[in-house]
Amino acid sequence: MCSRIMEHKKTKKIKHAEHIDTVNKETYSDDVVFEEEDGMAGKMKKLKEKLDICATERQEYLDGWQRAKAELINFRKDQENRSKYLSDRVQSDLITEMLPTLDSFEMAFCNKEVWESIDKNWRIGVEYIHSQLLDILKRNGLVEVNPIKEMFDPKYHDSFELVDVAEKESDGKVVEVAQKGYLYKDKIIRAARVKVGRHRPK
């Protein structure tokens, strides 16, 4: 009888110990889970921080690259504009230096009676040279300003004399062009020297 009681007590102790061991294991398991969750949360936080840093650096690199690209484009445009300006300036200066030559041709042609008295073949040759020269200059941007019967415009005309006119409609208009003016690519390089009509009512 005593042995049965002792055995029963042993069995209860063993079961109690097993129960405690099971509880301890479950508690340890829960602690491990919590620790793993805490560790995972920490890793996720660090990973997010690294991603934020990468995103910031990426944006900085992108902004820097875009600025550099814009600066390069602007630099190229400035260089192109400067090159075009210098080219136009050189060409304009060259054409301006050739204007007296055109004036010489115009002076030779203005006296029709004298001009037509010259040998015809020689005259045709000179007229052809003048035509060629003028055509080349026009193809390169030269435009004649010959404002006869046009309203006087101080932007394009240089008045050196007022001439009394009988017709009222000629008042303020160019009645004579002493020297043609010229434009180069829409910019005045020499104003036309003109006489302007002035109507005075009687």
TrEMBL record:
InterPro entries, A to Z: GrpE, GrpE_CC, GrpE_head
Which Gene3D superfamilies does the entry link to? 3.90.20.20, Head domain of nucleotide exchange factor GrpE
Keyword set, alphabetical order: Chaperone, Cytoplasm, Stress response
Question: Which SUPFAM superfamilies did the record assign?
Answer: Coiled-coil domain of nucleotide exchange factor GrpE, Head domain of nucleotide exchange factor GrpE
Q: Determine the domain of life of the protein's source.
A: Bacteria
Gene Ontology CC annotations of this record? cytoplasm
Kindly list the GO molecular function terms attached to this UniProt entry: adenyl-nucleotide exchange factor activity; protein homodimerization activity; protein-folding chaperone binding; unfolded protein binding
GO terms in the biological process aspect are:
protein folding
Indicate where this protein resides in the cell.
Cytoplasm
Q: Subunit structure, per the record?
A: Homodimer.
Its annotated function is as follows:
Participates actively in the response to hyperosmotic and heat shock by preventing the aggregation of stress-denatured proteins, in association with DnaK and GrpE. It is the nucleotide exchange factor for DnaK and may function as a thermosensor. Unfolded proteins bind initially to DnaJ; upon interaction with the DnaJ-bound protein, DnaK hydrolyzes its bound ATP, resulting in the formation of a stable complex. GrpE releases ADP from DnaK; ATP binding to DnaK triggers the release of the substrate protein, thus completing the reaction cycle.
Recorded family membership: Belongs to the GrpE family.
PANTHER family, per database record: GRPE PROTEIN, GRPE PROTEIN HOMOLOG, MITOCHONDRIAL
Can you say what this protein is called?
Answer: Protein GrpE
